[in-house]
Amino acid sequence: MDDMQLSEQLSELEGEVNSVSSRVDFLTSRIPNGGPRKKNSDVHPAVWELSTRAKHGLRACGVTEVWKIEQITPYDLIVAPNVGRKTLAHIYEWMENHDLHYKEDPKRPWTNIWKR
Description:
This protein has a single domain (3-115), classed as DNA polymerase, domain 1.
């Protein structure tokens, strides 16, 4: 293997490591209870896309870090205080944009949540 091939492989590997590192930073980011961004510098910028109501609803369900979102079902959120259909839809759209998914609940599929 010559120097050029080795250099290309190292560049590819570096890109993959940076991508994984960025994803880990996002998943381990905490969900703030509120306050200005300056005081919450450890929060990933994508978390600020959530509305205050959505962040409070997630925290009411015990979701304090982004990765914990995948440990709850939509039903856990819908019974949380101040989380209605619009907030639930907002959280779902945000999750889709960031490749996150609710915990599967075979008794209550996601599509039936609007038929309550």
